[in-house]
């Protein structure tokens, strides 16, 4: 979830700005939503990881929620407030051009 909403390496013309945990924001336990976990017992299947598979669908799920809420589709993570506002502004200007 952190990668989808705010984790981002900051770079400018002088180089990388995210050089430590103070300048690179990561998700903390107080920001993690309540999640119900269901473990399926399939001893006949090989182990395939625990949390790693969730990296793929989370951006899509959050992106769909943003689209449902405000009507813009974001295609680049993190889905920051600035990117949402930019997408809303672009949608407004595109709508004005089409009419």
Q: Care to describe what's here?
A:
Helix content is 36%, strand content 4%. It has 99 residues and is mainly alpha-helical. It has a single domain, classed as Aldehyde oxidase/xanthine dehydrogenase, molybdopterin binding domain (Aldehyde Oxidoreductase, domain 4, 2-Layer Sandwich), CATH 3.30.365.10. A hairpin with a 2-residue loop joins strand 1 and strand 2. The longest helix is centred in the last third of the chain and has 18 residues, at 81-98. It is extended, with a radius of gyration of 18 Å. It starts with a helix and ends with a helix.
Outline the low-pLDDT stretches: none
Report strand %. under 5%
CATH top level class name? Alpha Beta
- The CATH architecture would be 2-Layer Sandwich
Oligomer, anyone? single chain
Given helix and strand content, the structural type is mainly alpha
Q: What general form does the structure show?
A: extended
Strand arrangement in the largest pleated sheet: 1-2
In brief, what are we looking at here?
The protein is mainly alpha-helical and 99 residues long.
């Amino acid at each position: 979830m952190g990668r989808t909403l705010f984790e981002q390496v900051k770079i400018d013309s002088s180089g990388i700005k995210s050089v430590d945990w103070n300048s690179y924001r990561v998700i903390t336990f107080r920001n993690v939503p309540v999640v119900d976990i269901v473990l399926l017992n399939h001893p006949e299947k090989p182990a395939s990881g625990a949390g790693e598979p969730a990296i793929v669908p989370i951006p899509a799920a959050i992106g769909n929620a943003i689209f449902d809420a405000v009507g813009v589709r974001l295609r680049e993570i993190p889905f920051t407030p600035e990117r949402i506002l930019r997408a809303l502004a672009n949608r407004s200007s595109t709508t004005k051009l089409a009419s």
